[in-house]
Amino acid sequence: MVMMVAPALAVSAEEVAVYGYNSDPIVFWDPRDAASDETIWMNNVYERLLHLNFETGDLEPELAMRYEVSDDGLVWTFYLRQDVQFHTGNAMDAAAVRDSILGTKNRGKGLAYIWDAVKSVDVIDGHTVTFRLEYPAPLGLSAASALGAFIYDPKYVDEAWYSAGNDSGTGPYAVKSHDGTERIELAKFTKYWRGWDGQHFDKVVFLKVADATTRRLMVESGQIDFTNQLPPQMIADLGRSSSVEIVKGPSFQNLIAFFNTKKPPLDDPLVRRALAYTIPYADVITSALGGFGQQSRGPVPYGMWGHSDRIKQYTFSMETARALLTAAGYPDGGFKLVLTYTAGDDIEELTAQLWKSALAQLNVELEIRGMPWESHWDYAKGTDPLKRQDIFMFYWWSSYPNPYGYLHYMFETEQEITWNLGYYSNPVYDSLINTANRLTGRNQDEAIDMFIEAQNILMEDVPGLAVFDMQYVRAKNADLTGYVDNPIYTNVVFWYDCHRK
Amino acid sequence: MTSKSSPYGTIQLLRILRRQPLLFAGFVGVATVSLLAILAPLVAPYPEDAGSATHVDSRLLPPSADHLFGTDQLGRDILSRVLFGARISLSVSVAAIALALAIGVPLGVIAGYTGGVTDESIMRGTELIMSFPELLRAMAVMALLGPSLLNAVLALAVGWWTWHARLVRSQALSIRETAYVEAARAMGASWFRVVFRHVLPQCLVPATVQVSMDLGGIILTFATLSFLGIGAQPPTPEWGLMVSSGRTYFLTQWWITLFPGLAIFLTVLSFNLLGDGLREIMDPRMRGHQRRG
Amino acid sequence: MLSYVVRRCLFALFVLVGVSILTFLLTRVAPSDPAARWVGPRATAEQITQARAELGLDKPLPVQYMLYVSSLLQGNWGISIRTHRPVALDLQQYLPPTVELIVFSMFFAVPLGVFLGVVSAARSGTPVDHGARLLALAGVGLPGFWLAMILQIVFFKWIGLFPLSGRVAITTSVERLTGFLLIDSAIARNLPALGDALWHLVLPAATLAAYPVGNLARMTRNTMLEVLGEDFIRVARAIGAPEARVYFKHALRNVLGTLLTSTTLIFVYSLVGSFVVESVFNWPGFGSYAALSIMVIDYPAIMGITTVVAVSYVVLNLINDLAMAVVDPRIRLS
Fold it and tell me: Cα angle at C120 between C118 and C126, to 5 degrees?
């Protein structure tokens, strides 16, 4: 039977790993532009100067062997490895690093903003490069970022060359072939600087499998070795299978509910505070997340520096909510709110439905609308604030491990609406976080205090509320070893470190 | 006696039903679904579950005496939701068909009767709309207007009116030449009167037969749109939406997708049987052949 | 005859132009920002404005349409906002898998449906007829997404007879020539891959076949019954022709016209209607491409998709009508 024959053929001399992903792995080909799902394969093809170890919090050497920072935090010097080659055949040197990073910064796409503090980059010698900053910033974090920090061969900048399926990285695997945007195959780069002693995969395939049930069946039957997020409900069942191992880990992803501060009744902070008491947090964690997560404390997620117990946390309390609503002039509720979320996301949908149920008890009608992401976002950017939604629900996560990202993008005053979807504007808050950001490179502890203060301002005004911090739950082949969960490199498996027992 | 000699007397009716088990089955099916839909608030054991109620403690329970169809991921009784879902499916479909007929039949009659440029332009218009595949049309409209039940009705009606217009037009074409209509014209009846009092009623018969089959098709399309996420929105207990949201649990909590899916299937099948059966007995060409067998 | 051909071709052209204008207007009127979609989820406001200029979205509508049409005719179908690849390339990529699936499915569905219809007509009024009609109506009424899921569970999870998803096993690779795996593996004489591809086709094709079988069975039955009442059939019977020949030779021939039209319509419908099957079986085809593009209002892709569908519809209809006109003089004289 063909079914029997096919697996037999697959057991060839080559070790092939398969990563089943829920979305298209290929979005942009150019390492300077990559901003989302490409991270899962680009982090095996490209490398960066430093690597952030989540457990210890240390910046570890990657393409740079070590680095030095001047006392004023304005000059960063990196000492590069001397044995690194690009897949294109050229050797990596200081000039390549300089051109590579400046190329990303100047192109202005993707995560170019992580280099905003850089004033100039100088080549000291063949393998030493110096960054001069405009203000003291934690450049090490930028250099270790999951995206936007790749060192690529700067002689290759032609978009058409990249789109044809080529890569200019230094990493252990190189792009071999691809099929549309759903499948990409990498093969090992024999001249990789770490060498190939020990057990390693020869090839890695990244495959889009949109349907969660199909993906789950594939993991169970061993057709894929690793998959990212599966719905929490499936995880419980999968855990019982002996061929599958469940991997849980913190993520930097949280669920945010923005309140439209420009539209009554949510223009009244009392009403917003009341609503913060009406979310059934415990039920949401159990039903929507399957227990894989915890209630947020402020918009900076658990596990990232800047998160703290000193930040206020709301509880589920209908009496408090009722009291606040009465104080605001709505003793019997009687108003309607429209909540929009991204269609197709079960977790958001369940959360919204539980909230709706709770609000019904206060005679507040919550209409929930699932919309495709583009329409969802567009609706929130409409010209008339009164015509926009009342509550905007979505996830936030950051590829750049800095609380400033969360606090700046979502709550700082915006001229043109992008991510501040509560339309909040508070000059005190704005100056507080920007001062803290500039302080981070020099005095992180003081910066943390300021970030905490800023978050407490947000908890008082409640322009938006972080509902829960998610845990990432993934399923992998029980025989697969070497995977280390690192929320900074979201969804990335460093396949070089893995092998199948 | 008149009742025995008229072709549709009770005895004749029973005879027809006996010879047409499919029509009978379809009729029973449609009647059952309609009845259940109307009586849902009274018959459903947990009517609040069809709205925004949630019962986190009784999530994902298998079928039992308390919950004949089990409960879903928010603890809601699936039987109650399926019953209320019948209301939504039927009301949206009937509304869409009514709108389609309201647009299509008059346009078709005018096209067929008037002929000339009016006919040509209306027909070209229908062909233009029909060259978009149905699902694509409906999806495009929903994507533009946003998901809501009203928009779904519009999206569905947009496609189906063309079909009826063409059907009615060919009827009108043949009726136009009959002596009956010529007489009306000779007597000086206005164009308006001739079209709407004389021609239109005769065109309605084939249209009504087609309607039953159409209802089945519309229910299916609407379920598919909801399955995709651009039809009914949660927590509406629409069948397609229930199948879609149950997909995650499909392998272990199979009842969440099975029962709504079954409801769609049986309802659409019933309408199809009814429509097909009506066609059987009303089409004279069929009748002639059948008496042989 | 010639005037008929000319008339039909002109009309076909008219429909194509009309469809393209209609789709163009619809996508431009849509309340969505293609520039934001292009740049991706973590874009800044400046990046979006930059993208808008790059994509030419700031020009007046008629100009955009003319630009579009001229580039279309030159073979440049624009760049998809969602995949960032040329739409022509995307279509080249995603059409073959769906066409392969539909053709494979129809290959079995058409004879099966017709056979069912003929049997139904021959034994009309009997339980055989009733049973066949019930099957046909069930096929037409089954929700595709539901059937797909059930087949997957029964034939993969429980019985383990057919594969779960995809066109071939993950580790099988076939050199891409036409995009049709059956053809490509045959050309490369890669028999295991050919077998693998066939094995993967079974479940999705079966799901897709339910509607055509039901539809064709009904069409065939009803048209045959009409034809069987005609005089020439009575004559054939009177002469003493065997029943089988009466049905399959004389009656069926006259039914061909309707069959052809139905098959054409079903083919075009399946191009987009296949997306549910494609989604459940992870089949990277035209249907899912169409569904995804519509959901995110990827206007170049949508234009490409509607063009393909409209052209297929118009061309197939044209061929159909012309073939019928050759066979039946009454048509071209009307």
Answer: 145
What's the mean pLDDT in B244-262? 86
Distance from CA of C31 to the nearest CA of B (A): 7
Residue from A372, A412, A415, A416 nearest A394 by CA: A372
pLDDT confidence tier of residue C39, bands split at 50, 70 and 90: low
Distance from CA of A181 to the nearest CA of B (A): 21
Average of per-residue pLDDT across A374-382: 82
Query: Angle B157-B158-B163 (CA atoms, 0-180°, nearest 5)?
Result: 80
More confident: A272 or B186: A272
Of A308, A272, A37, whose CA–CA distance to A147 is shortest? Answer: A37
Q: Which of residues 48-67 of C touch A (CB under 8 A)?
A: 48, 50
Closest-CA distance, A306 to chain C, in angstroms, reads 22
CB-CB under 8 Å, B269 with C143: no
Q: Is C139 on the interface with A (CB under 8 A)?
A: no
Residues A174, A191: Cα–Cα separation, whole Å: 11
What residue in A sits closest to C33 (Cα-Cα)? A378
| Chain centroid to CA A296 | 16
- Cα separation, A293 vs A470, whole angstroms: 4
DSSP string, B206-274: HHHHHHHHHHHHHHHHHHHHHHHTSSS-TTS--HHHHHHHHGGGTTT-THHHHHHHHHHHHHHHHHHHH
Tokens representing A388 are: 């926009």
Residue A11 has pLDDT above 60, yes or no: no
Q: Residue A155 pLDDT > 80, yes or no?
A: yes
Is the pLDDT score of A2 beyond 60? no
Contacts of C140 in chain B (CB under 8 A): 216, 268, 272
What distance in Å separates the CA atoms of residue A460 and residue C280, rounded to the nearest whole number? Answer: 46
Q: CA-CA distance, A184 to B278, in Å (whole number)?
A: 55
Is the pLDDT higher at A419 or at C321? A419
d(CA C82, CA A176): 23
Between A and C, how many residue pairs show a Cβ–Cβ distance under 8 A? 121
Neighbours of C66 (CB within 10 A): 11
Kind and range of the H or E run holding C311? helix C299-327
Q: Is B54 on the interface with A (CB under 8 A)?
A: yes
Q: How far apart are CA A369 and CA A373, in angstroms?
A: 12
Backbone angles phi, psi at A87, to 5 degrees: -65, -20
- B250/C153 Cβ within 8 A: yes
Q: What is the pLDDT of residues A197-240, one digit of tens each?
A: 999 999 999 999 887 888 888 898 888 999 988 888 788 778 88
Query: How many Å apart are CA A148 and CA A104, to the nearest integer?
Result: 7
Cβ neighbours of residue C332 closer than 8 Å, sequence gap 6 or more: C1, C4, C325
The more confident residue out of C147 and C314 is: C147
Chain B partners of A211 at a C-beta cutoff of 8 Å? 247
- Contacts A289 to B, Cβ<8 Å: none
- How does strand A244-259 pair with strand A464-477? antiparallel
**Could you give the 3-state DSSP secondary structure of residue A130?**
strand
The whole-model pTM stands at 0.80
Band of residue C329 on the pLDDT scale cut at 50, 70, 90: low
Q: Does B157 touch chain A (CB under 8 A)?
A: no
Q: What is this model's ipTM?
A: 0.78
Average pLDDT over residues C297-307: 81
Contact B235 A368 (CB under 8 A): yes
- Quote the CA–CA distance of B8 and B23 in Å, as a whole number: 15
C311 or A492: whose pLDDT is higher? Answer: A492
From A79, A130, A62, A73, select the one nearest A494 (Cα to Cα): A62
Distance from CA of B54 to the nearest CA of A (A): 6
Predicted confidence (pLDDT) at residue C27 exceeds the cutoff of 70: no
